[in-house]
Design brief:
Layout: H1 4-26, H2 30-38, H3 41-47, H4 58-68
């Protein structure tokens, strides 16, 4: 069983990974990439532990983010 701290760390890592992909694939600045991630429904789903997004692959979660963009 994961602790709340471990889950939070996984959520933060996923957030950073999503922003990094936006920077690399779409040429976004760091500020713009974080703004897109933090203001997305995907991020809200990631923050809701019940969705299980935090333990999915970054590719799976990024696919949802791309659909929003």
């Amino acid at each position: 069983m994961l602790t709340e701290g471990q889950i939070q760390c996984m959520k933060e890592d996923m957030t950073a990974s999503l922003a990094q992909i936006l920077i690399e694939e779409r040429g976004y600045s760091m500020e713009h990439a974080l703004d897109v991630v933090y203001n997305s429904a995907t991020f809200r789903n990631l923050q809701n532990t019940a969705t299980g997004y935090y333990y999915q692959s970054v590719g799976y979660v990024y696919d949802d983010l791309q659909k929003e963009i």
